[in-house]
Amino acid sequence: MTKGDRWLLLLIITIGLSLLAWRTWSFPSSQRQVRIFRDGELISSFYLQDKESRTEQIKLDGGVATLEVQGGAVRLAPNSAHYCPQRICVQTGWIKQPGESIICAPNKLVVRIETMEDGIDALSR
User: Fold this and answer.
1) Residue-wise pLDDT tens digits, 30-84
2) What is the pLDDT, as a whole number, of residue 18?
3) Dihedral of CA 41/47/48/53: which sign?
4) Are the C-beta atoms of 14 and 20 separated by less than 8 Å?
5) In Å, what is the CA distance from 36 to each residue of 9, 67, 69?
6) What does the alpha-carbon distance between residue 9 and residue 7 come to, in Å, rounded to a whole number?
7) Domain extent listing, the chain
């Protein structure tokens, strides 16, 4: 391995680590909002705070789901009531970044984290 190869490898590693750090820590400044949809209709929404802990009950056709909020993240808590046959939505676990979502297809439930920023999100001509 030549000296130039080492510099190129070091540059690639540095760029990779920088992109990873940017992806991991780029969203805390924006206001995050949890939006809960059932059958395509918005049933609840609230801002996600880092130091907030709470639970919310969501009535579904198959039973009652428990939404758990803790430390700036949200999940559908596992419980003994079987409101979802395969429990994929429960296995999704904690979500905290904008764009992440929990989907329960049998109950037509979507829990999504979105950013609430002023300004233009995208422009197309």
Assistant:
1) 688 999 999 989 999 998 888 889 998 888 887 888 899 998 899 998 876 667 7
2) 93
3) negative
4) no
5) 45, 10, 13
6) 5
7) 1-29, 32-115
- Token pair for 85: 């046959």
| Residue 22 tokens, joined | 């940017």
Taking CA atoms, 7 is separated from 2, 16, 17, in Å, by 9, 14, 15
Residue with tokens 């904008």: 98
Which residue's structure tokens are 């939404």? Answer: 67
Domain 32-115 has CATH 2.60.320.10: yes
pLDDT band at 6; cut points 50, 70, 90: very high
pTM of the predicted model over 0.85 = no
The DSSP line for 19-88 is HHHHHHHSSTTSPEEEEEEETTEEEEEEE--TT-EEEEEEEETTEEEEEEEETTEEEEPP-SS-SSSS-H
Backbone phi and psi for residue 27, each to the nearest 5 degrees, phi listed first: -100, -10
